[in-house]
């Protein structure tokens, strides 16, 4: 009897989520592909420096500007460095910048947005005004200004990328917190004597969390693009550090003389990573929040 | 109508104040001491103190802010360290180049994206719809500087169709007499078709780069908004009344679907103004973006600050224009205002 009861009980929680996820991936094989790409990127980011065939910084002027071959899959650059190794090793830095900025804005924007949506009043007005002011700038231009003012370092690229995404997170978190403000479970928590901050952290935040995670994966691609754009114009990452944006910039001059591979492969890596995160974000949204499917 | 436009003008005042405060803070809350920075590496404590005094940095922050606003009101954005020239002159002389490029890119992209979006919505599920979706997703994933370089490689190096990506005009041509600052318009009004062709050929690749980048959001929004409108009752009624498909789609549906598309244009402009900087660097375009990049590399802050402020003010004004155009396109918005 107990066996039957156990098997017929509708799946809840994690089991249902996994089944739903499997259904979404089955419906949309592109999400599956994006997930496979994500694993590949993750592997390159984690163990890239140990598996590449050449030292990404070792120059060999005798073998400079060689097109792709069996020895150098993606060819070599002006200093004879192996582009394949540099592209793989760069994954770590690009990925770290994107993750760090997304986590940072998740903390800043998520908390500010939840506070604005839950408390309303002055908190809401101040947070809203800050977000509006950021939105009044063309975002990449603001990021340039922030990095120029705070100093030309990788940390400041992370910070600038986080700041320009701030309004997006605030808007989502604020809306989600606002609708839950008078929800039954919040009222119940309030009645049982929980303080306001305790309600925010233990009742509201866990409910807003999944939607913010979707937001994180949707903005990952943009964060990578933004950071690479900044390093393309010479901010943040310094040569000879391998990074996709700066590698495209290094190869830009050679495009005119026909050495396409120097800029091409890091550019493709960048494109594939962004494409992967955008698809993954869409897929994740379908799993967590099916109503917003487009 | 006039009153509602005036009322819109008032709403941008707090935004402009916010923008000015942020650009002010960007320089004054530097982690280092700006006076040390402006004095250069060979500075003595006395010279630093002098510079601090001459820059007004010994005064409290609110006073400094008032000075900054006063300078702005007189059109003074400071001088470039590298050239010693007032930043504002440089920005004004370079702005037409950037504006021509951005508008050209936007026009190409609207001309492609809106028909594409309409077709995708009308023939939902067809190959056009799928193409639209692929183009939209791929377009937002392409780093704009990379697209630019690819186009240069294919159309300049391989095919030889485009001129070298070096600025607005080939060295053999002289710039047309300055009226609007837009080479395309100025050369046409001067009747100089050779210069027109030359500047157009320089403009096509960077313009296409910006267009490829901005087609995606516009096409996506057109499609979504058309789909919603096409499912409405009045479109069904119009169809049932035997109106031609063209009338139904363009006059009845598109006119109602266009508002969200225009809202998206505001967002697209934010991206375009940023992408402009990257495209100008790739194509050695002498606009305000490349000016700012040069200054950034040289740690010359006044031009960067002026550039950020100019871009933000332009963007606020564009959003204002978009808001006003709502009222012209949709009478309901006018009534509410």
Please describe what this structure looks like.
The complex is a heterodimer of chains A (294) and B (337). Chain A is mainly alpha-helical and 294 residues long. The N terminus of chain A is likely disordered. Chain B is built from 14 helices and no strands. At the A-B interface, helix 5, helix 6, helix 9, helix 10 and helix 11 of A face helix 1, helix 6, helix 7, helix 11 and helix 12 of B.
Tell me briefly what this model is.
Chain A is mainly alpha-helical. Chain A has helices at 2-8, 13-27, 29-51, 83-119, 121-135, 139-150, 154-180, 184-191, 196-232, 244-255, 261-288. Chain A is 75% helix and 0% strand.
- Biggest protein-protein contact in the assembly: A-B, 47 and 56 residues
Low-confidence residue ranges of chain B: none
By helix and strand content of chain A, what is the structural category?
mainly alpha
| Largest β sheet strand count, sense and barrel closure of chain B | none
* Proportion of helical residues of chain B: over 70%
Helix content of chain A: over 70%
How much beta of chain B, percentage-wise? under 5%
Order of helices and strands of chain A: HHHHHHHHHHH
* Outline type of chain A: elongated
Mean pLDDT of chain A: 82
What class would the helix/strand composition of chain B place it in? mainly alpha
Helix and strand pattern of chain B: HHHHHHHHHHHHHH
């Amino acid at each position: 009897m107990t066996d039957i009861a156990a098997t017929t009980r509708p799946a809840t929680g994690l089991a249902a989520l996994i089944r739903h996820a499997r259904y979404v991936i089955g419906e949309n094989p592109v999400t599956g592909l994006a997930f496979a790409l994500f694993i590949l990127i993750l592997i390159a980011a984690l163990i890239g420096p140990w598996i590449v065939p050449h030292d990404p910084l070792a120059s060999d002027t005798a073998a400079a500007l060689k097109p792709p071959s069996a020895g150098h899959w993606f060819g070599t650059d002006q200093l004879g460095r192996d582009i394949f190794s540099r592209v793989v090793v760069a994954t770590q830095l690009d990925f770290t910048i994107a993750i760090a900025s997304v986590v940072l804005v998740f903390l800043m924007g998520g908390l500010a947005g939840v506070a604005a949506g839950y408390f309303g009043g002055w908190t809401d007005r101040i947070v809203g005004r800050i977000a509006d002011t950021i939105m009044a700038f063309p975002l990449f231009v603001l990021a340039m200004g922030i990095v120029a003012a705070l100093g030309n370092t990788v940390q400041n690229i992370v910070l600038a990328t986080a700041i320009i995404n701030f309004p997006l997170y605030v808007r989502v978190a604020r809306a989600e917190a606002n609708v839950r403000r008078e929800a039954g479970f919040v009222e119940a928590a309030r009645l049982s004597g929980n303080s306001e901050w305790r309600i925010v952290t233990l009742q509201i935040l866990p409910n807003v969390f999944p939607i913010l995670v979707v937001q994180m994966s949707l903005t990952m691609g943009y964060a990578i693009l933004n950071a690479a754009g900044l390093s393309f114009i010479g901010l943040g990452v310094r040569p000879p550090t391998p990074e996709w944006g700066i590698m495209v910039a290094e190869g830009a001059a050679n495009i005119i003389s026909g050495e396409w591979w120097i800029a091409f492969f890091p550019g493709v890596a960048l494109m594939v990573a962004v494409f992967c995160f955008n698809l993954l974000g869409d897929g994740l949204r379908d799993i967590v929040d099916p109503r917003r499917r487009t | 109508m006039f009153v509602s436009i005036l009322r819109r003008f008032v709403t941008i005042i707090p935004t402009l104040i916010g923008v000015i405060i942020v650009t002010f803070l960007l320089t004054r809350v530097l982690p280092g001491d700006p006076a040390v920075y402006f004095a250069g590496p060979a500075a003595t404590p006395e010279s630093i103190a002098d510079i601090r005094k001459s820059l007004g940095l010994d005064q409290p922050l609110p006073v400094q802010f008032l000075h900054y606003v006063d300078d702005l009101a007189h059109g003074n954005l400071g001088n470039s360290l590298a050239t010693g020239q007032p930043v504002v002159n440089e920005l004004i002389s370079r702005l037409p180049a950037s504006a021509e490029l951005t508008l050209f890119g936007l026009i190409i992209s609207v001309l492609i994206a809106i028909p594409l979006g309409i077709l995708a919505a009308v023939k939902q599920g067809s190959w056009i719809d799928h193409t639209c979706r692929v183009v939209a997703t791929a377009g937002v994933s392409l780093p704009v500087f990379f697209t630019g370089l690819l186009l240069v490689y294919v159309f300049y190096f391989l095919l030889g169709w485009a001129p070298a990506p070096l600025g607005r005009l080939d060295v053999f041509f002289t710039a047309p007499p300055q009226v609007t600052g837009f080479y395309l318009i100025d050369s046409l009004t001067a009747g100089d078709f050779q210069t027109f062709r030359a500047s157009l050929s320089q403009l096509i690749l960077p313009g296409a780069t910006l267009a490829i980048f901005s087609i995606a959001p516009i096409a996506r929004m057109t499609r979504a908004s058309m789909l919603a409108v096409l499912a409405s009752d009045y479109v069904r009624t119009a169809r049932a009344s035997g109106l031609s498909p063209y009338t139904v789609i363009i006059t009845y549906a598109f006119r109602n679907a266009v508002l969200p598309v225009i809202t998206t244009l505001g967002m697209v402009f934010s991206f375009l103004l940023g992408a402009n900087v990257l495209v100008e660097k790739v194509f050695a375009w002498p606009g305000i973006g490349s000016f700012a990049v040069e200054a950034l590399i040289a740690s010359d802050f006044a031009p960067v600050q002026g550039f950020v402020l100019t871009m933000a003010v332009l963007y606020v004004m564009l959003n204002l224009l978009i808001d006003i155009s709502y009222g012209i396109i949709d009478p309901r918005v006018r009534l509410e205002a």
